[in-house]
Amino acid sequence: MISTIADLEPAARGQAERLTRLLTGYESTGEEPLMAIFEWSLSRLAGEVPDPSGGRKRFDTALGELLKESQDKQLDRPLGEYLEALQAWLEDCPGYYANRGLSVPIEAWALLADAIVAATDYE
Question: For the chain, what are the domain ranges?
Answer without folding.
Answer: 1-49, 51-123
